[in-house]
Design brief:
1 helix, rod-shaped
Length: 49
């Protein structure tokens, strides 16, 4: 059976990585919502008729 301390360490590492990903995702989503980022890529859209 696995060592309990090792399992606690692995769980702590996974929890830390999960928290970091959630915070990063939240910051990116907030940036898109605030308009700091744009999905257009800087292209100019012209109206041609």
């Amino acid at each position: 059976m696995a060592d309990r301390n090792a399992l606690q360490l692995v769980g702590f590492i996974f929890a830390t990585v999960t928290l970091a990903v959630m915070l990063t995702t939240g910051m990116v989503v907030k940036g898109y919502a605030d308009g700091a980022y744009s999905l257009d890529g800087g292209r100019a859209v012209t109206d041609r008729q």
